């Protein structure tokens, strides 16, 4: 009997991406996240785009929901 195939693993998030994601989960704006992490709002937006690509979803609420289900935050 063949082994069941597993779903592809989520590419790992960097420490910075996890920090951004945690602050998104707190409801912070890109600007507020940038101020907290000493990044520009554009850099925060770039991190969110990479997170969305890795998690396979785009909007903030879905990012948080997926991250919670996967135990990332």
Structural class: mainly alpha
Q: How large is the radius of gyration?
A: 14 Å
Q: Can you tell me the number of structural domains? A: 1
Q: How many angstroms does the end-to-end distance come to?
A: 37 Å
Average pLDDT for all residues: 90
CATH-defined fold name: Arc Repressor Mutant, subunit A
CATH superfamily: Winged helix-like DNA-binding domain superfamily/Winged helix DNA-binding domain
**CATH architecture assignment name:** Orthogonal Bundle
CATH class: Mainly Alpha
How many strands in all? Answer: 0
**The biggest beta sheet, please?**
none
Describe the global form: globular
Catalogue the unreliable spans.
Answer: none
Characterize this entry briefly:
This protein has about 70 residues and is an all-alpha fold.
How would you portray this structure in words?
It is built from four helices and no strands. It has 73 residues and is mainly alpha-helical. It has one domain (15-69): Arc Repressor Mutant, subunit A. Helix 2 (30-37) crosses helix 3 (41-55). The termini are far apart.
Q: Which tags fit this structure?
A:
73 residues, mainly alpha, Arc Repressor Mutant, subunit A, 4 helices, globular
Layout of strands and helices, then pairs:
Elements: H1 15-25, H2 30-37, H3 41-55, H4 60-69
Helix pairs in contact: 1-3, 1-4, 2-3
């Amino acid at each position: 009997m063949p082994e069941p195939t597993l779903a592809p693993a989520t590419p790992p998030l960097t420490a910075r991406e996890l920090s951004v994601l945690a602050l998104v989960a707190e409801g912070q704006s890109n600007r507020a996240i940038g101020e907290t992490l000493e990044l520009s709002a554009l850099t925060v937006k770039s991190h969110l785009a990479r997170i969305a690509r890795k998690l396979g979803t785009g909007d903030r609420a879905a990012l948080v929901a997926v991250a919670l289900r996967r135990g990332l935050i």
